[in-house]
User: What shape does this take?
Amino acid sequence: MRCFDTTFLFDFMRGEESAVNKIRELKDASELLTTPAVAAAELLIGAHYRGGQELSRTLEFLEQIEVLPFDITEATEAGRLGAGSMRRGSPLVGNDLLVAATSRSHRGILVSRDTVFSNVPGLAVEAY
Assistant: This one.
């Protein structure tokens, strides 16, 4: 299972070649494509702001992938990850923390070009 972070989603929706190619590669491999609910929400903020075709395209894309929920399981994982990152002196906060926790709790491979995720213990990260 591949789990897309917000940066990947933005890049894909803008037609960034590396992101488009990654989606093709994963679809060809019949990989389950997912994203955390928080990443979908971040993407939808911009789509709603722009409205029209941008919103329609975004909603259509999100219907084609699985949006992973954020509930007590992911909240507990976020607590563990957040406390651990504070102990290491490199706090992971905000939506990045929630994305990492969701991907890790669902045992997904996070697809991202954001280097903040490379320091999260136990989180599988794949660049594109």
Notes: The chain has a mean pLDDT of 96. Helices lie at 6-13, 17-28, 37-50, 52-63, 72-87, 94-105. The CA atoms of residues 20 and 47 lie 18 Å apart.
